[in-house]
Specification:
The protein has eleven helices and eleven strands. It is of the alpha/beta class. Helix 2 crosses helix 10. It is globular and about 65 Å long. 36% of the residues are buried.
């Protein structure tokens, strides 16, 4: 079922990927009955901004089946962007303050690269905590990815994330820890991870969270907690990633090493490259370590690697998001209708006026 983009034109890469006219609708037009309405708050840095849109649109499109999905794009104020990123957000994203007056069934919030060691000190922290509190009261369910997941548990329960000794990077096999509608699937649990921080399982359990999936190597992957009206679903991993996303991050980190922006050569993502690709990349690493020069990236063996990449977590990711969309449909049938804050405020104002 098509993904309908509300409010602004569909981003060009998504429209091109559909090989058709942009699937864009104004909020007043198009089919509404049976739609699931989702706010996607995309906070990724400029280099990954458009990739992330396509990743989530593709996953929702595949998982939705016959259910139409309507998406409106937002991004947190305070995310540092260059001119191209600012222009993209201005062209395709709604103003962040618009979010408070809209009706959504769910919200998906991405992470971003941190600027400071403590999340409390991030320039966007006040808006992010406001978003967390809004989602508790005004959505049926919400997804918090990577840094956004860490922010959610910090703000909600004071759980501090801990710094890892090295980047948790690769595709990890896990197990289903809890029997929950979100984990109902015959698929093997496999998800990509790319992070420097971790939330300990014992801290989650002590604060009333339910761990859904985890692995010995990656730790907790997904976990949930009902917060007021909304079921909060957190991912430390990235089920939305495309086949080449980890490769792009690895290539970026190699370039940063060659520029002198990081001290050590980045380790390969675990469980991701086949033996042939790993050998080719090891040969390039040997050259890079002997001659640290960014010009070496002109001979980086990208084409030889990309053609062999596989999205081995695809069926598991689709299963989780399909279960999530079904859960939203069920909760929507059971829950009272949501009224946007602007409607409530208007009614309160009229009530006061009538009493005067």
């Amino acid at each position: 079922m098509p993904i309908f983009i509300e409010g602004r034109p569909a981003p060009a890469r998504w429209a091109d990927r559909q090989a058709a006219q942009p699937l864009s609708m104004d909020i007043t037009g198009g089919p509404r009955s049976g739609c699931i309405r989702i706010a996607l708050v995309n906070n990724m840095p400029d280099a990954a901004l458009e990739d992330t849109e396509v990743q989530f649109f593709t996953l929702l499109d595949t998982a939705s089946g016959d259910t139409p999905i309507r998406v409106r794009l937002y991004s947190l104020p305070g995310i540092d962007r260059a001119e191209r990123g600012r222009q993209h957000v201005s062209s395709f994203y709604s103003e962040f303050c618009d979010l408070w007056t809209r009706q959504f069934d769910a919200v998906i919030v991405t992470g971003t690269e941190p600027c400071t060691p403590k999340l409390h000190n991030e320039p966007y922290w006040p808006q992010l905590t406001q978003l967390i509190e809004w989602a508790e009261r005004n959505t049926l369910s919400s997804v918090w990815s990577c840094l956004a997941a860490h922010a959610s548990v910090l703000h909600g329960d004071g759980i501090e994330r801990r710094r890892l000794s090295d980047k948790r990077f690769g595709v990890f096999e896990g197990t289903r820890i809890a029997d929950h509608v979100l984990t109902k699937s015959g698929e093997k649990v496999r998800f990509p991870h790319s992070r420097w921080n971790d939330i300990p399982a014992d801290a989650l359990h002590e604060s009333g969270y339910t761990v859904l999936t985890a692995s010995p190597a990656a730790g907790v992957d997904s976990f949930i907690k009902v917060r007021k009206r909304s079921l909060f679903l957190h991912f430390q991993g990235h089920p939305e990633y495309e086949a080449n996303t980890l490769f792009k991050e690895y290539r970026r980190d190699i370039r940063r090493f060659l520029r002198g922006e990081r001290e050590s050569y980045p380790p390969m993502p675990q469980g991701y490259f086949d033996s042939s690709a790993a050998e080719i990349l090891s040969d390039f690493q040997s050259i890079a370590l002997s001659s640290r020069d960014e010009d070496l990236m002109t001979s980086f063996p990208e084409e030889a690697i990309v053609r062999g990449l596989e999205k081995g977590w695809h069926t598991c990711a689709v299963s989780v998001y399909r279960n999530w969309l079904h859960l939203i449909e069920q909760r929507r049938r059971e829950a009272p209708a949501f009224r946007p804050l602007s409607v409530i405020a208007d009614q309160l104002y009229k009530g006061r006026s009538a009493a005067q």
